[in-house]
UniProtKB/TrEMBL annotation:
Localization: Secreted, Cell wall
Keywords associated with the record: Cell wall, Secreted
Name of the protein in its database record: 3-oxoacyl-[acyl-carrier-protein] reductase MabA
Gene3D superfamilies according to UniProt: NAD(P)-binding Rossmann-like Domain
The family this protein is said to belong to: Belongs to the short-chain dehydrogenases/reductases (SDR) family.
Keyword S-adenosyl-L-methionine: no
The organism's taxonomic lineage, starting at the top: Bacteria, Bacillati, Actinomycetota, Actinomycetes, Mycobacteriales
Species per Swiss-Prot/TrEMBL record: Nocardia arthritidis
Length: 259
């Protein structure tokens, strides 16, 4: 299927590894030019060169911490008028109420509420005036199925989800869609981090913790980053112009509720 977005520009946040990189690669595979962000400038340069060589699209690496004002300014200076914005960031500190301090919750809000909101606020007017825009926020299954050990993630991302829904209701009239993808147990560095923490907490070895991750999913396997990338690319397509304001679970069929 031709997604109809070749030649457009996408800004993909936290895209030097994991889910962000998978999204950048999926979009580049559709002929989309990429602004590729990561905190490590050298790593961003290497990833950009690899995507550029493989897919033949333009790729602008931007080494910047987008939770900062200067970092966001640097990202937006690379391409002030992207057609596509994929917001993404590292996961907040895991833990329950007794383990997390105010700083942990504040950091989670910076990562997964204020940063995506400020980026959307910067690019949305241009998208609406040009009558095309696709915004996809990578959030988490914790939005709809909060875990007592992932409180910072659940709280910040639930707030993000609510405000993005309100934005979506207005923006879609100008052919700008705003959607969220909710990954769970995707085989990335985050899952390795969580497996180490669970092994320590439960007194089990790392491999047992990894097996438990897969067994917690109805599909009995971890998801692949490229599966997330493909879903995000479709939500950015011309064919997806009638899809907006949704939360798409990418969880191997694990979400238990009806709606």
């Amino acid at each position: 299927m031709d997604l109809g977005i070749a030649g457009r520009w996408a800004t993909v946040c936290a895209a030097t590894e994991g889910l962000g990189l998978a999204c950048a690669r999926a979009l580049a595979g559709e002929g989309v030019n990429i602004v590729l962000n990561g905190r490590d400038s050298a790593k961003a340069e290497r990833r950009a060169a690899g995507i550029r060589d493989e897919f033949g699209v333009r790729v602008l690496p931007v080494g910047a911490d987008i939770t900062t004002t200067d970092g966001r300014a640097k990202l937006l200076a690379a391409q002030a008028d992207p057609d596509i914005l994929v917001t993404n960031n590292r996961g907040p500190q895991p833990g329950g109420l007794a383990e997390l301090g105010d700083d942990d919750f504040a950091t989670a809000l910076d990562l997964h509420y204020w940063t995506p909101l400020r980026l959307v606020r910067a690019v949305l007017p241009g998208m609406r005036s040009r009558k095309f825009g696709r915004i996809v926020n990578i959030t988490s299954a914790m939005v709809t199925t909060p875990s007592p050990l992932m409180l910072a993630s659940a709280g910040a991302r639930a707030g993000e989800t609510a405000i993005m829904k309100g934005i979506a209701l207005e923006a879609v009239a100008d052919n700008v869609t705003v959607n969220n993808v909710l990954p769970e147990r995707i085989d990335s560095g985050r899952q390795i981090q969580l497996a180490h923490l669970e092994a320590e907490r439960a007194g089990i070895d790392f491999e047992e913790a990894r097996r438990a991750q897969a067994e917690s999913i109805r599909a009995r396997r971890l998801g692949r980053p490229e599966e997330v990338g493909s879903a995000v690319a479709y939500l950015c397509s011309v064919q997806a112009g009638y899809i907006s304001g949704i939360n798409l679970h990418l969880d191997g069929g694990s979400y238990p509720a009806l709606i």
